[in-house]
Amino acid sequence: MRVAFTVYRGNPRSGGQGVYTRYLTRELVRLGHDVTVLSGPPYPELDPGVELRKLESLDLFGGELPFRPPSPFSFPDSVAFYEIALMLTGAFPDPKAFGVRLRRMTAEIERGFDLVHDNQSLNWAVADLAARGMPSVASIHHPITVDRRLALEAASSLKARIGLRRFFSFLPMQAKVARRMSRVITVSQVSALDIAREMGIPHSRISVIPIGVDSEVFRPLPQVRREPGLICTTASAAVPMKGLRYLLEAVKALPDTRLVIMGPHDDSSNVATLIERLGLAERVQLAGSVSLEEMVVTYARSQVAVIPSLYEGFSLPAVEAMACGVPLVASSGGALAEVVGGLAATVKPGSGGLLAIAIEEVLADYEAALFRAEQARIEVLKRYSWERAALLTEVEYTRALAGSRG
Question: Does CATH number 3.40.50.2000 belong to domain 2-212+385-404?
Answer without folding.
Answer: yes
